[in-house]
Amino acid sequence: MNIINLAMRLIMLLFWFGVIYAIVGPDFKEVGTMPLILGAVVLVMHILQMLMLKQASKFLNLTAKDYLLVLVFGSFAMNHHRARLKEISEENKKTNEKNRQKKSQSKD
To answer: What is the pTM for the complete model shown?
Structure first.
């Protein structure tokens, strides 16, 4: 994991702690509703990312931890999954190309 991804994960953790503090903290009226609105928007985006990951789950061996990491960190937790899907896609392209070559050779 590179340093930028790690820093962004830390920022996301701070964001979620801020949202939780805005909900349960003693000065709710001073904080206002902006953290709650931003938290809801980010939560919806992360849920959509989880649903996208769910669609790719037939190619990946996903655990509950993977889904939780995407829920908390969003796209910053998906780098490994993207790389694995790219590898699988490249393998499929090579396999398909070999199959096409075999079919064209058998027709000749």
So the answer is: 0.73
